């Protein structure tokens, strides 16, 4: 398995001091839904800043707004009010076509239940986003997919169907697929929720390595002992940020 140099706290402090410009900037983000004639606030006036190369955990009870916030950041949903900037792009202003193109090039998503296509091999699953977005030349896609599978440590599974892999191997495959178009941003929705504790720890270590290599990772999680893995924890309650414990401030 290709391995990145394991980051120390000092390494990450130096890195964050160099990357002073925020990759993610949310200002006053509110999302409301009309339910049975009443207004339900999924998010209320959320402000958030994330620098390049940070690994952020979003925590909170069910219904606190975690998944809604992740959907906002990945452009799957749009705020009722407020601004969302990813780099120099105000994604809250984009229409659906431009959002889809932006998301395909800039965001990789990892799901709790993997969402691998069962009739495609692992290699074909990883190549699929490259085929959709056409950002990687066709002649380079297979080689890139194999490199990504090597990076996550499962090259030997490339020609197998997902059902023949363990849960941890399927999640590694899903991470390789999320990295297919070399996105700057990785969104993970409960990526360890369907894994045993040892496999979950291996996935968190992989995310840590990816952050050290320059990827920015935002992860929704119910993991209790998450602080040793991440740059900061953002806790939500009733659609509001109730604390943001930046570990390296």
Can you describe what's shown?
With 249 residues, the protein is of the alpha/beta class. The chain has a domain at 9-13 and 52-75 and 107-246: Rossmann fold, CATH 3.40.50. The protein contains 7 helices and 10 strands. Strands 6-7-8-3-9-10 form a 6-stranded mixed beta sheet. It has a 4-stranded antiparallel beta sheet with strand order 2-1-4-5, covered by helices on one side. The longest helix is centred in the last third of the chain and has 16 residues, at 197-212. The chain starts with 8 loop residues before the first helix and ends with a strand.
Summarize the structure.
By secondary structure, this protein is of the alpha/beta class.
The CATH H-level superfamily of the domain at 9-13 and 52-75 and 107-246 is P-loop containing nucleotide triphosphate hydrolases
Structural class: alpha/beta
Please state how the strands of the largest beta sheet are arranged side by side: 6-7-8-3-9-10
The portion of residues assigned to helices is 25-40%
CATH architecture of the domain at 9-13 and 52-75 and 107-246: 3-Layer(aba) Sandwich
Number of strands: 10
Overall 3D form: globular
- What's the average pLDDT? 85
Low-confidence stretches: 1-19, 245-249
Content of β-strand? 25-35%
What is the CATH topology of the domain at 9-13 and 52-75 and 107-246?
Rossmann fold
Kindly, what is the distance between the CA atoms of the first and last residues, rounded to a whole number of angstroms? 33 Å
Work out the helix count: 7
Largest sheet: 6 strands, mixed
Give the helix/strand layout.
Layout: H1 9-18, E1 24-35, E2 38-50, E3 55-59, H2 66-73, E4 81-86, E5 89-90, H3 96-106, E6 107-111, H4 122-133, H5 138-151, H6 167-178, E7 185-189, H7 197-212, E8 216-220, E9 232-237, E10 240-246
Parallel strand pairs: 3-8, 3-9, 6-7, 7-8
Antiparallel strand pairs: 1-2, 1-4, 4-5, 9-10
Helix pairs in contact: 4-5, 4-6, 5-6, 6-7
């Amino acid at each position: 398995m290709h391995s990145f140099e394991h980051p120390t706290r000092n390494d990450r402090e130096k890195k964050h001091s160099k990357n002073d410009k925020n990759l993610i900037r949310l200002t006053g983000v509110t999302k409301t839904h009309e339910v049975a004639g009443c207004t339900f606030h999924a998010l209320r006036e959320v402000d958030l800043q994330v620098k390049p190369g940070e690994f952020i955990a979003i925590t909170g009870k069910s219904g606190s707004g975690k998944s809604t916030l992740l959907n906002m950041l990945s452009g799957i949903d749009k705020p009722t009010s407020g601004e969302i900037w990813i780099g120099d792009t105000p994604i809250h202003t984009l229409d659906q076509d431009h959002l889809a193109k932006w998301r395909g090039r800039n965001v990789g998503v990892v799901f709790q239940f993997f969402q691998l296509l069962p009739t495609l091999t692992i290699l074909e699953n990883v190549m699929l986003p490259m085929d959709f977005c056409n950002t990687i030349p066709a002649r380079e896609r297979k080689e890139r997919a194999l490199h990504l599978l090597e990076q996550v440590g499962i090259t030997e599974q490339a020609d197998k169907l997902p059902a023949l892999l363990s849960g941890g191997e399927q999640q590694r495959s899903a991470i390789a697929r999320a990295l297919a178009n070399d996105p700057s941003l990785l969104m993970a929705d409960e990526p360890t929720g369907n894994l045993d504790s040892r496999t979950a720890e291996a996935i968190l270590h992989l995310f840590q390595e990816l952050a050290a290599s320059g990827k920015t990772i935002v992860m929704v999680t119910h993991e209790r002992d998450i602080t040793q893995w991440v740059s900061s924890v953002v806790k939500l309650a009733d659609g509001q940020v109730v604390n943001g414990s930046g570990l390296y401030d």
